[in-house]
Design goal:
heterodimer, A: 246 residues, mainly beta, 5-stranded mixed beta sheet, 4-stranded mixed beta sheet, 5% helix, 24% strand, B: 205 residues, 8-stranded mixed beta sheet, 2 helices
Chain lengths: 246, 205
């Protein structure tokens, strides 16, 4: 992490118009799992502006290589090889260094490796479907994987999830905690998905769609998609020896 | 025209989905050999951790009173002296034997979550008044579109709870007990109700 003083200021108020509301009955599971009463708002205290920091000691060499972290020696998963890369930033545009990013996904056929998964597409013996990494001091991260497949899910009689990768991100404060999903440029399933449609703001949906990034593509190896993640910003503090605000 | 403020927008939340365990607690769902242990699993304390040992147990219930079997619960709390183990904690150095954060998936059969921890000390509110001891909760699951923040206070802290700046600003006093974990011996039971008459108070923080 950068050698700058830790920030101790509260986060900006969350713009909940950018987020899905709790109750979105077209995504049926929300009906009984959505709080009905107003959230109680208050500006963050020390309990919210602090958060856990994870050291690189928890990360293994292949944690950000889903092509390798579950594969048998000399083998690899079936599917389109891709590099996913991007940056964790806060709403001020400042890179968030040292942020733990976890990700999980279905295999190329749209099947998850999970006890409760019942889709008929086969498991890939060389694909676990998850990984993690810690952003560098400027907030950048990357991992290698295969492009996940779309899959049907029990909601309406014919609902399919677009290809997506789940992300769990820790910032520097517990109130920045975020779980989201990344979609792929050009996928026609995005705009049919009831879970995507829980987000009321079209621009906010577009910000979840990772563009193909030919500049980061590794020739003769894998194509790249770029996915930046923005966490809540916090009020800037004037430090005596560092006279800069926002 | 004025200058653009230039702020970015926070990335929108999406549900953690039914397979959150794959990414966050793979060993729990039977995927072994990639991570040695699941992050945030196991006891939060060791022999050197200072403070009073407690076990927090509970369930997350939906609006039909059914316990969620696929929720993921994270907690964040201060050490026994009321200090957080975080770079943004500048009041002092927290107990090095207490990380303060843990993650527990609800049991796949019963939905119960369990945390082996210590009772946190009191932490000041923004104006310096002390808040009552509390544990911060964050709940995600299939059908929860954005993670839910709440706090667990302690039933054996009646006096401190009575002067807590957050609890005391809650207009509907009848709802305050939804934030109080019931302590019996070393066990504190904290059930979370997503809906219904006992809907837990959730915070926008």
């Amino acid at each position: 992490m950068k050698n700058t003083p830790p920030e101790t200021t509260p986060f900006f108020a969350r713009d909940r118009d950018m987020h899905p509301p709790a109750y979105t009955p077209w995504y049926k599971t929300t009906v009984l799992r959505s709080p009905q009463r107003a959230l109680i708002s208050f500006e963050g205290t020390i309990s919210e502006i602090t958060g856990p920091v994870f050291g690189h000691s928890i990360i293994n060499e292949f944690d950000n290589d889903l092509l390798a972290n579950y594969a048998k020696p000399g083998e690899g998963p079936i599917g389109e090889r891709i590099l996913v890369h991007g940056r964790a930033l806060d709403e001020r545009g400042i890179g968030i260094g040292g942020a733990l990013v976890e990700f999980w996904q279905a295999n190329a056929g749209g099947r998850y490796r999970h006890k409760k998964e019942t889709y008929l597409a086969p498991l890939d013996p060389n694909f676990g479907g998850f990984g993690r990494t810690i952003t560098d001091e400027n907030g950048f991260y990357w991992f290698k994987t295969v492009r996940p497949g779309a899959y049907p899910w029990p909601n309406g009689v014919n609902d399919w999830r677009p290809a997506h990768i789940h992300f769990s991100v820790f910032g520097h404060g517990f109130a920045q905690r975020l779980i989201t999903q990344m979609y792929f440029e050009g996928d026609p399933m995005i705009w049919k998905c009831p879970i995507v449609k829980t987000i009321p703001d079209e621009e906010a949906i577009k910000r979840l769609i990772a563009p193909l990034d030919m500049n980061a593509t590794i020739p003769h190896d894998m194509r790249a998609y770029k996915f930046d993640i923005v966490l809540r910003g916090r009020r800037s503090t004037l430090f005596e020896n560092r006279m800069e605000g926002n | 025209m004025v200058q653009p403020l230039g702020y970015l927008k926070e990335t929108a939340s999406q549900t953690a989905g039914p397979y959150v365990h794959i990414g966050c607690t793979p060993n729990f769902t039977g995927i072994h050999g990639v991570y040695e242990t699941d992050l945030g699993s196991g006891s939060m304390i060791n022999d050197q951790t200072r403070g009073e040992r407690i076990t927090i147990r509970g369930h997350v219930y939906d609006g039909a009173g059914t316990a969620l079997k696929d929720a993921l619960i994270e907690i964040w709390q201060a050490d026994a002296e009321g200090l957080y183990n975080s770079p943004s904690e500048i009041r002092g150095k927290a107990d090095p034997n207490f990380f303060g954060w843990a993650r527990c998936p609800g049991d796949m059969a019963t939905g119960e979550f369990v945390f082996e921890t210590i009772k946190p000390g009191r932490v000041p509110f923004r104006d310096g008044r002390l808040m009552a001891p509390h544990v911060n909760f964050w709940i995600v699951a299939r059908g929860i579109n954005i993670g839910l923040n709440t706090r667990m206070y302690f039933s054996d802290e009646e006096a401190a709870n009575g002067e807590d700046p957050i609890l005391s600003r809650i207009e509907h006093r009848v709802r305050v007990p939804t934030l109080i974990g019931k302590r019996e011996g070393d066990t504190v039971t904290f059930d979370i109700h997503l809906q219904g008459d006992n809907e837990t108070i959730f915070f926008d923080v």
